[in-house]
Structure formats: C-alpha cells, structure tokens
C-alpha cells in the first residue's frame, strides 16, 4: 500500500540500486550467465502447488533478485498482501475491499468487510449454484415446454465473459459433452445470431452475467435473447425457465424480468476481471460439475496460501511480477507474451489481457500523481505451436525485447501417437524447450558460417539470443491446475501494481468511451438529422453512416 510516508518508486533505495545494477548487466549475454554457473538451470527455479517455474533463462543474477526482492519489501508488498487478505479497502478510488481470495476461502474462514464475515455468504451462493448445476446436468431443469435444457448460453462481456469462456475451453475435457455451451459477448448482432442459429429455444437456458446489470452490450444481448425465446415459446412465463442472472444488482435483474429466485449474487468486492470463481463461473460449474468446480477453487486457494506465506525469493507470483517490473522498467520491454502449449488454453492469453491490462494500465499513482516510469505492459499470446508459425519470427529476430512465459504440461489429456511413431505430446513439449533454448542462446555468426552458409546470407541467419523467458511446467491441465495458474497471474498483477503504486482494481479508463458511445448511438438512430457537436472527423463519420444506413 502506498502510505503518504512511503517514498515514490524512483526514491526507493532498491530502485536506485537496480538502476546501477542494470547498467552493469545490460550487455551480459545469457550464454555467459549460463557458462559462469553450471547449475543455473536447476538453481534458478521454484516449485509450489504443482507448478515448476524455471526462471533461469532471464537476464538476471543473484544480485538482481536480491535487489528486486528488496524493492518489493520497500514497496510494502508484504503489508499490501495482508491488507488484501484481511478485507481492507485497498481499492481506494472506489472505496472497496478487494476480496477475490474470499471466493475460494474454506467454509470456516473469517474475512470481514465492514465488520461482516463474508465467507458464509460465499458458501451459500456456491451451494445454490451447485444445486442448480446438478439439476441442469441431470436434465432435471426443464424448459417451458417440458423439454430438458440442453444448451447453455452465457451472455456477458469483459470479466463476465472472458473468465467463463476461457474456463470452459480450458476444462472442456471434463465437461458434460451432452450439453452445448455458447458465449455471447459482442453487441455486434452477429455474435448472438451465430451462437443461437442452430439452437432450439425450448432447450436453451440463458445465463445473463453482469456485475452491474447495466452494461450496454449485455443488456442489449439479453433483450434480444428474451425476444428470441418469446418469439418461439409465445408466453412471458417462459422467461423464468429460460433465464437466470448472475449479478450484484438484484433490482435491475428483477426489472429485466428475471425472478430473483433465479439470481446468483456476488459482491462489490469482486472485480469483474477477478470474478471467474464467483457466481460468474456458473456456466463453468454446469459444464464440469460442482465437484470439479470445487477442485478449481482448491487450486486458486493453494496459490493464495503460497502467495501469502512463501518468502518472496521462492514465491511464484512475486517472482513473475518482479521479473515483469525488471523488463518493463529497466529494459523498456513494452509487451509480454504468454504462450500456453496446450490447445485447451487457447483463450488463456485473451483472458489474461483483461486481467493484466485493465488492472495495471494506469499512469496515476494511488496518491494521484503521474508516474515517471512505465507501468503495465501489453500482454498477448497464442497457443503453441501455432504461434511459432506466425509471430515468433519477431520474438527471435525482431528489434523488440519480448519476455515470454511458456506454459507446458508433462502429460497430455489427449495422448495420441501417430502410426509413423510420432508422439504428439513429446513433439509439443520438445517445441517448448527448443524455443526457450533458441531464444536464450541463439546462434552466432561463427556457428552459421561453420554450417557452410555463404557470407552474404550469414547475417540473416544469425540469432542474437539473449531473449528472456520463463518456463512453467505443470503435470496436467486439471481444474485444480487451472485454478493455480489463474491465481498465479492474479497475484503477479498484484505484485506489479504494488510496486508501481497504482490501483490495480479500478478501471476508469473504460468510462469515457462508454459515455460517448451512448451519445453517438442516439445520434445514429435519430429520426431527424441531429445537431452534431463533435470534432469534424466524428461529425463526418456520423453523417456518412446515417446517409449510408438510410439509403
Ligand atoms: O469494460 C469495463 C467493465 O466494467 C469490466 O471491468 C467488466 O468486467 C465488464 O465491463 C463487464 O461489466 P459487467 O459485469 O458489470 O457487465
């Protein structure tokens, strides 16, 4: 937490020391670091809650780590972690506690917000979700015509979509295959049309997921869904069988027409991007069942405990967070790639984009002053090996330094071997290790020339190397493993935000566009040509659209 007395980041002694240290280390190659230390690849590793982290292929020494850990201490990370876990209102700009960790707290825990223990309410909702999920899964939740629900469509956006869709894709292996799951988020009508075109309304359940229940996209899609159901079933009372809501806003849920008996609540101390393990995960629970959802929560909880108690030197989220600060602020890295080598994790980078960038895309500190250092980098990625045949060229030979997190598993959920003898999973994993090796060590001009490459071609074929990466190795992609992975990044984001002294839990930056869109929407659909008072570009675009749309 930034106390008024805490020095600003550039004033913290470890920061100054890191500057001097960076100047010494900047030109050192990973080849030299590995040559100096034969056991580096075993030593610069950490393991906890089923995740083995090899961070040896980073441009760091023991001294770097020592200084980064000092920086975390001087930034009040230990106290800030405790403040979060004990329900202090660390989201100061919204005057809210930040308690996604309470969503996975065991039943007997006590975590108070405004003097009230929130854990019993969490378990009460989990219990209701479990009963409901069991009914749908068993075909005992009947639609209006008496047919069992077979299709579940989650309507939501941002944190009310990205977590559910990512978790569904990630845990598809464990899902009830007889049910169909769809996710509608975009206000573009195509999203709704394509998601529902082959579904029978009599067998379809909509989960309207919105923390506020006011979000334009979600409310528009929910209204369209209501029309779609009523057009087929022709009876308003059908809504109760075909719609449930997940929200903190009971009043708005009711006025939309959803019975609050069919509402699953959560609380203002759960940020949208931290909500996939709240009732927002209802579609996940229907897909994988309450027991597996419990394992997911146990994975989150295991990482929470590790984050709260492990020394910073061996603390996975702290290490990842500190490395991100190191590359962002000292090497000037503007982006960070996350590369899961598991097809089921195909939406994980998209999920992380909201988690990381909505959290730490800030340029003002908690005390309201502009930062004079870089904060949240752009996160991006694609599953391997596909990304290798697309953008890895730039990571290997481009002019940007892009730290990478490689995520791999020792066991596949679909262990296939081709008759040619090729084992899919060995090949997949070989690529993880090969990529991190190539990035770190590259290929020198001498090596390229020694292969008989003509002189003129040598520069094109040289790999400088010295490109940093982490390797995260897990056993297999289970619900528990997914929980640990998501919590790992949640707490890495927390670590970064604490060091940068920004509020990782508000998102004022999305407001202006929303407000302007409402105004423009009125102007696009007005009967008479409206008086336009925007800039000349926006005015011209509006006129052009109106003319074309009305032609
Ligand atoms: O994009 C801004 C945002 O407020 C996100 O933080 C949030 O996850 C998303 O919109 C959806 O909000 P809601 O769940 O209230 O519909």
TrEMBL record:
This is Glucose-6-phosphate isomerase. Catalyzes the reversible isomerization of glucose-6-phosphate to fructose-6-phosphate. GO terms for molecular function: glucose-6-phosphate isomerase activity. PANTHER family: GLUCOSE-6-PHOSPHATE ISOMERASE. Pfam families: PGI. InterPro entries: G6P_Isomerase, G6P_Isomerase_C, Phosphoglucose_isomerase_CS, SIS_dom_sf, SIS_PGI_1, SIS_PGI_2. Its EC number is 5.3.1.9. Its main location: cytoplasm. It comes from Jatrophihabitans cynanchi. It is found in: Cytoplasm. Keywords: Cytoplasm, Gluconeogenesis, Glycolysis, Isomerase. It catalyses: alpha-D-glucose 6-phosphate = beta-D-fructose 6-phosphate. Pathway: Carbohydrate biosynthesis; gluconeogenesis; Carbohydrate degradation; glycolysis; D-glyceraldehyde 3-phosphate and glycerone phosphate from D-glucose: step 2/4. Belongs to the GPI family. The active site is at residues 358, 389, 514.
């Amino acid at each position: 937490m930034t106390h008024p007395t805490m020095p600003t980041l550039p004033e913290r002694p470890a920061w100054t020391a890191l500057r001097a240290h960076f100047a010494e280390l900047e030109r050192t190659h990973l080849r030299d670091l590995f040559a100096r230390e034969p056991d580096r690849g075993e030593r610069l590793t950490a393991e906890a809650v089923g995740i083995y982290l090899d961070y040896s292929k980073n441009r760091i020494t023991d001294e770097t780590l020592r200084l980064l850990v000092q920086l975390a201490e001087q930034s009040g990370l230990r106290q800030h972690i405790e403040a979060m876990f004990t329900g202090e209102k660390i989201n100061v700009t919204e005057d809210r506690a930040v308690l996604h960790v309470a969503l996975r707290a065991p039943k007997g825990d006590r975590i108070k917000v405004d003097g009230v223990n929130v854990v019993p309410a969490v378990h009460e909702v989990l219990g209701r979700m479990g009963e409901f999920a069991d009914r749908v899964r068993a075909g005992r939740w009947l639609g209006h015509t008496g047919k069992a629900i077979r299709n579940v469509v989650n309507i939501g956006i941002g944190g009310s979509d990205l977590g559910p869709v990512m978790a569904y894709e990630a845990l598809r292996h464990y899902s009830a295959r007889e049910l169909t799951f769809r996710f509608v988020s975009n206000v573009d009508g195509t999203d709704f049309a394509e998601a529902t075109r082959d579904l029978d309304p009599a067998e379809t359940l909509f989960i309207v997921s919105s923390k506020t229940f006011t979000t334009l996209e979600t409310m528009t899609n929910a209204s369209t869904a209501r029309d779609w159901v009523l057009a087929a079933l022709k009876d308003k009372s059908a809504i109760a069988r075909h719609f449930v809501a997940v929200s903190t806003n009971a009043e708005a849920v009711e006025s939309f027409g959803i019975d609050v008996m069919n509402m699953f609540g959560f609380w203002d101390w759960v940020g949208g991007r931290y909500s996939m393990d709240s009732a927002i995960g209802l579609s996940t629970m229907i897909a994988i069942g309450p027991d597996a959802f419990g394992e997911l929560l146990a994975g989150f909880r295991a990482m929470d405990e590790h984050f709260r108690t492990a020394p910073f030197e061996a603390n996975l989220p702290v290490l990842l967070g500190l490395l991100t600060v190191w590359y962002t602020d000292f090497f000037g890295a503007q982006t960070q790639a996350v590369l899961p080598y598991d097809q089921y994790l195909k939406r994980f980078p998209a999920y992380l984009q909201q988690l990381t960038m909505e959290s730490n895309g800030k340029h003002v500190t908690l005390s309201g002053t502009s930062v004079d250092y870089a904060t949240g980098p752009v996160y991006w990625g694609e599953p391997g090996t596909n990304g290798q045949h697309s953008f890895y060229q730039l990571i290997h030979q481009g002019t940007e330094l892009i730290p990478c997190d490689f995520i791999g598993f020792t066991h596949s959920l679909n262990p296939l071997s081709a008759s040619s003898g090729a084992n899919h999973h060995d090949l997949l994993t070989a690529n993880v290790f090969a990529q991190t090796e190539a990035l770190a060590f590259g290929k020198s001009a001498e090596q390229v020339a020694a292969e008989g490459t003509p002189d003129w071609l040598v520069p094109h074929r040289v790999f400088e190397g010295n490109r940093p990466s982490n390797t995260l190795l897990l056993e297999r992609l289970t619900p528990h493993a997914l929980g640990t992975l998501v919590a790992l990044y949640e707490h890495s984001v927390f670590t970064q935000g604490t060091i940068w002294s920004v509020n990782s839990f508000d998102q004022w930056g999305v407001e202006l566009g929303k407000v302007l869109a409402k105004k423009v929407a009125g102007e696009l659909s007005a009967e008479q040509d409206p008086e336009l008072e925007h800039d000349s570009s926006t005015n011209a675009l509006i006129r052009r659209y109106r003319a074309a749309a009305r032609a």
